[in-house]
Amino acid sequence: MTCVVASLPVRSIAELNERIKRLRDADLIELRLDYMHELPPVDEFIKKVEDFKDKTIVTVRDVNEGGVNKISESSKADFLKAIYKEGIIYDVEVRFLKRNIVPYENMIVSIHYFDYLPTFEEVRNNLSSYANRALVKVAVIGTGKYKQLLARVLEEFPNSAVMPMGVNPLERIAFSLLGSKLIYAHTGEETAKGQMYYKDVKNILSYFNVECEKLFPNPRL
Ligand SMILES: O=C1C[C@@](O)(C(=O)O)C[C@@H](O)[C@@H]1O
Q: In terms of CB atoms within 10 Å, which of 33, 82, 119, 129 comes out highest?
């Protein structure tokens, strides 16, 4: 069922450990490292998240898909490869994978559409290469027949997460009940339009007995 992801903007790793501790009631914690101007040294980062590795998702979001700061692709690729060895889950874009060789098995492979609503065929063509070995994720702007599109993605890809952006946040609850594996929520500062506060999401989903299941039950080969 659905895991609630508390999405945390990270502008400095100085107090990161303390900030994560305050989110211990979230199922998963997304660390949006693109809020920093450059990525931290990997060993320093690992020390900060060591105690929470099993509930951390690292995201260095591309500026063309909602990211805040431009991070060099080579440093992003090196950082992801380094944390992969530490067993940390990260979110990597389909478009990034088309330009860079980084592992994606048992990771989150995502695609975001802010400017237009894609056809289902376009989404399927982008995700089908990854869907058997990763959790595929689609975020779209809430325009046109976006509900039908996202519902179809959930039907086509059992291990997926979908979210509409810029619409009533309650719609994300509906997609959770339709099978989205993840629901992204804010911790006080939205990282995308259309998020609810993560504690409110946890509270609502508890009324439906929605539990978070381990994202990747089969350990890496
Ligand atoms: O990809 C996503 C989904 C998201 O854009 C949202 O719509 O909640 C928020 C991002 O932080 C996350 O990486």
A: 33
Residue 112 annotated among the catalytic residues of the structure:
yes
The active-site residue, picked from 48, 55, 76, 112, is 112
Q: In what order do the strands lie in the sheet with 160-165?
A: 160-165, 135-141, 108-113, 89-93, 56-59, 28-32, 3-9, 182-186
**Ligand 1 — pocket residues by CB below 6 A?**
7, 30, 32, 59, 61, 66, 91, 110, 112, 139, 163, 165, 184, 191-192, 195
Rounded percentage of the chain residues whose pLDDT exceeds 70 = 98
Domains of the chain by residue range:
3-105+169-206
Q: How far is the CA of 184 from the centre of ligand 1 (A)?
A: 6
- For residue 137, indicate whether it is catalytic: yes
pLDDT reported for residue 221: 41
Write the pLDDT tens digit of every residue in 172-201.
999 999 999 999 999 999 999 999 999 999
pLDDT at 15: 86
Statement: the pTM of the whole predicted model exceeds 0.90: yes
Strands (E), 33-151: 56-59, 89-93, 108-113, 135-141
Q: Could you confirm whether domain 3-105+169-206 is CATH 3.40.190.10?
A: no
User: Which atom of ligand 1 has the smallest separation from the CA of 163?
Assistant: 7
